[in-house]
Design brief:
heterodimer; A: alpha/beta; Rossmann fold; six-stranded mixed β-sheet; four-stranded antiparallel β-sheet; 10 strands; globular; B: mainly alpha; ABC transporter involved in vitamin B12 uptake, BtuC; 2 domains; two-stranded antiparallel sheet; about 70% helix
């Protein structure tokens, strides 16, 4: 589905990604774990075409996408949910969703406003509320719903559990399992190990822009020394 | 003034407000989505008038053909907007904001000369609207029916645009892109198409504003800059991005202007005040007051943080002595080996170079864009002239005092300006410049008004061309060297700290505003020195020294050379002055040629000339290494 090979990226002169490679298969939830500043968000932004890759290759459902503008990448069915949520605060819930709308896609689940409101019941109760007047958890759900309106085959979620109350994190995990149930691939950036444990099949550990571990979530949970080395703060 | 005439003036003001609103709404829409301050928006308004004139002539004088002409003119201008967006602006969305400004300014020049070529230089008086030529009796005064109709047009168009923005997906996309266009792209929206469509709507609104004025206002070539100044003012007073705010501001300014005409000369507390003279400044006074009280306009909100992959400008590198000495040697021997024409051209270039360097000083390192730097240039020039002719001071004293007078005004204006930032700051500088210009333009007894002042010659010992040449080189050279030296002093580092990270600079104890204010005054003084030096070399001075076009000339010089380099403004001033001089001799359409050259540079060297050459040089060195 999504495959990244030897990716390098820079912010100005700062070299952030040093030959990073990863894969996500159809219907799989993959977690990308690492400390602050390890390069998790940059990885997603580079895949999405928001940060230009200096070197390397990104393939998505059989197409090479690393030189495409981000709107073309999104139109191939790769959805992106940014860390800072980036809700359109002046727009209502329904308008936010309409911005994300794309035509129905073969081989990907089709979403309507009503189906999304079934997945995120809170949103259905505030259809005409401006995005700026919602709580953090509601905004996080809206930003995921907005991306799903594009009927993606794969979504990248950048720290979806960050800053949310424990009960909302629980709901978020439930929603991500539901997405997996629909057959979507999910690539997840996280610092919250327990959250990953609840949703992810496989995990990568990233540090200083390189992958230091690749394996199943169960392997990672079994290896305390590895977690101590790369994830403890 | 009687009640009926007051009422008529109020209605007149509302009529004027409609077109002003249409232009401003288009400007605001385009700025919101693309972040481009479209200097060419006044030109689109002007095109609307001319196109309506020709279309109505072509279609005939029935009510139907009149309105068809107006609508078609608006659509045609919209198409022109699309062409501009696709041919030029699309290539430079990733360039620095200021460079986009330069590109739109080049478009102003090209549109002006194209219009001159097609329609000629005569003012064209359009037909009255067929079927609406009657007038209504209002309390004994007559008001044309067409004017009444125009009063309604503003709010109606506001309503339509509002419906479009709130009830269509296109509108949701526009509003979303106004807040975060990168995110809109990541959701699969093709920004290029969205931007093109926004340009169509924005340009068509400006064209409609112009076309609707055809029965009331002759089409003429000066409309572009005067309308863009008005539209800037309206947009800023109303609050950037707020369409209701733009309507409110347009009404406020339209009514204030026509009241000034209506009141005429009145005595208040024993003083005779001629209000009609205030017409030229009243909008800028309103803008100044509004921005000081409400820094984001009447209905505006603080601007959203613009998300862009933009990085801080690269550090400046100080000039190298060998290069500087070579230039100095060249300038010293230049008058010995060439004729008077070259010396005169070099004097012009030196004065404009100092002017451009002083503008760059506040725009680049201090991060304050000024649309009104000509105010200090003009003030310096006029201060010298007035002290010499009216106060009878010796030339040397007048000359030396002039920069201080320009600085004194910069102290006053700067105090207000440094309280704002970004586009709002640029607009406020424009307001002060325009106030200065209109005072100079109208104070006949002091400045001889629109005629300008003549006989401003240097003292006897400086009266030969070569003596004044060396005098100019010393003054301007020292001025430029002084400003450059300051940039590499702790003061200059502090300025850059305040520009790159105002919050952190404040947090380590820097009074950012205070430093910006001082920078503003320094730059004002040096612009004044440039102005007075040029005035004494020409022997005469006219209000155009403080005009908008003088300010934009300065901007073009700085941006042409490159705002991120030290020597860029000097190169830009040299190239600008030399090109203008040379082109004006060769062709009547020098503006268009000049505009095309600017566009070419903008597309080829998005970092400015000097910046672009540095990049090329770097690549060449790398390829050899």
């Amino acid at each position: 589905m999504l495959s990244v090979k030897d990716l390098h990226a820079y912010y100005g002169r700062a070299h952030i990604l040093h030959g990073l490679s990863l894969e996500a298969d159809a219907g799989e939830v993959v977690a990308l774990l690492g400390r602050n500043g390890a390069g998790k968000s940059t990885t997603m932004k580079t895949i999405m075409g928001l940060v230009p890759p200096a070197q390397g290759e990104v393939n998505f459902s059989g197409k090479r996408i690393d030189r495409l503008p981000s709107y073309r990448i999104a139109r191939l069915g790769l959805g992106y949910v940014p860390e800072e949520r980036r809700i359109f605060t002046e727009l209502t819930v329904l308008e936010n969703l309409s911005v994300g709308r794309q035509p129905v896609r073969d081989g990907a689940p089709t979403w309507t406003e009503e189906r999304l409101f079934a997945l995120f019941p809170n949103l259905g109760r505030m259809r005409d509320r401006p995005g700026g007047r919602m709580s953090g958890g509601e905004q996080q759900m809206l930003t995921i719903a907005r991306t799903l309106m594009g009927n993606p085959r794969c979504v990248m979620l950048d720290e979806p559990s960050e800053g949310l109350a424990p009960i909302i994190v629980e709901q978020m995990a439930e929603s991500i399992r539901a997405l997996k149930g629909e057959g979507l691939s999910v690539l997840l950036c996280e610092q919250n190990l327990h959250f990953c444990q609840a949703v992810a099949d496989r995990a990568y550990i990233i540090e200083k822009g390189q992958i230091h571990f690749a394996g199943s979530m169960a392997e990672l949970m079994a290896d305390a020394a590895l977690r101590e080395q790369y994830l403890s703060v | 003034m009687t009640l009926p005439s007051l009422l008529i003036q109020l209605l007149n003001g509302l009529t004027d407000a409609s077109s002003l609103f249409l232009v401003s709404a288009g400007l605001s829409l385009i700025f919101g989505v693309t972040r481009i301050v479209n200097f060419a928006h006044g030109s689109l308004y002007m095109l609307g008038l001319y196109m309506a004139y020709s279309l109505i002539q072509l279609l005939g004088r029935t009510p139907l053909s009149f309105w068809a002409g107006v609508i078609l003119a608006a659509i045609a201008v919209g198409v022109v907007g699309v062409v501009i967006e696709m041919l030029v602006l699309r290539r430079i969305y990733r360039a620095p904001e200021l460079f986009q400004l330069l590109a739109t300014f080049a478009i102003v020049l090209i549109v002006k000369d194209t219009t001159l070529y097609i329609w000629g230089s005569e003012d064209l008086v359009g037909p009255r609207a067929p079927g609406l030529t009657m007038a209504f009796d209002i309390l004994g005064k007559r008001l044309p029916a067409y004017d009444l109709l125009l009063i309604v047009v503003g709010p109606v168009v506001l309503g339509l645009v509002w419906l479009l923005l709130t009830h269509t997906r296109w509108g949701a996309l526009v509003r979303a892109a106004t807040q975060d266009r990168e995110m809109v792209g990541a959701l699969g929206v093709d920004q290029a198409k969205l931007f093109t469509s926004v340009f169509f709507v924005g340009a068509a609104l400006a064209g409609l504003g112009g076309a609707l004025q055809i029965p009331r206002e002759p089409a003429n070539l000066d409309l572009d800059l005067s309308v863009i100044a008005d539209a800037f003012v309206v947009t800023v007073v109303g609050g950037l991005g707020s369409l209701p705010g733009a309507l409110l501001a347009a009404i406020l300014i339209g009514v204030a202007k026509s009241l000034c005409i209506g009141i005429g000369t009145t005595s208040i507390l024993g003083f005779e005040i001629d209000f009609s003279r205030l017409v030229l400044v009243v909008e800028f006074v309103i803008m100044g007051v509004v921005l000081v009280l409400r820094p984001y306009g009447l209905l505006g909100k603080p601007p959203a943080v613009v998300r862009a992959a933009g990085s801080a400008p690269p550090p400046l590198t100080p000039p190298r002595w060998p290069t500087a000495l070579a230039w100095i040697a060249l300038l010293v021997i230049a008058p010995m080996i060439s004729d008077d024409y070259i010396a005169a051209l070099l004097i012009d270039i030196a004065c404009f170079a100092l002017f451009a360097v002083s503008l760059h000083f506040i725009m680049g390192p201090a991060g304050m864009i000024s649309f009104g730097h000509a105010a200090y240039f003009g003030l310096g020039a006029y201060a010298g002239a007035v002290l010499l002719k009216r106060a009878g001071l010796p030339m040397e004293v007048s000359f030396l005092l002039a920069p201080f007078i320009a600085a004194a005004f910069a102290v006053l204006y700067g105090w207000f300006c440094v309280r704002l930032s970004g586009v709002y700051l640029a607009m406020l500088t424009l307001a002060f410049a325009q106030i200065t210009w209109s005072i100079v333009f109208q104070w006949d007894s002091l400045t001889s008004g629109s005629n300008g002042m003549v006989g401003i010659w240097p003292a006897a010992w400086l009266s030969t061309k070569s003596a004044y040449y060396y005098m100019t080189m010393v003054c301007c050279g020292l001025g430029i060297a002084f400003l450059w030296r300051v940039l590499f002093s702790p003061f200059g580092f502090t300025l850059r700290a305040g520009r790159d990270s105002p919050l952190r600079a404040e947090a380590i104890g820097i009074d950012v505003r205070g430093f910006q204010w001082m920078a503003f005054v320094l730059a004002g003084a040096m612009a004044g020195l440039a102005g007075v030096t040029l005035a004494f070399s020409k022997g005469s001075i006219s209000p155009s020294a403080a005009s908008i076009s003088q300010s934009t000339d300065g901007l073009v010089m700085v941006l042409l050379g490159g705002v991120e380099t030290l020597t860029g403004p000097v190169v830009g001033a040299g190239l600008f002055t030399w090109l203008r001089d040379g082109l004006a001799r060769e062709t009547d359409y020098w503006r268009a040629v000049f505009g095309l050259i600017i566009l070419l540079i903008v597309v080829l060297f998005p970092q400015g000339l000097v910046g672009g050459l540095k990049v090329l040089l770097g690549r060449w060195r790398e390829s050899r290494a």
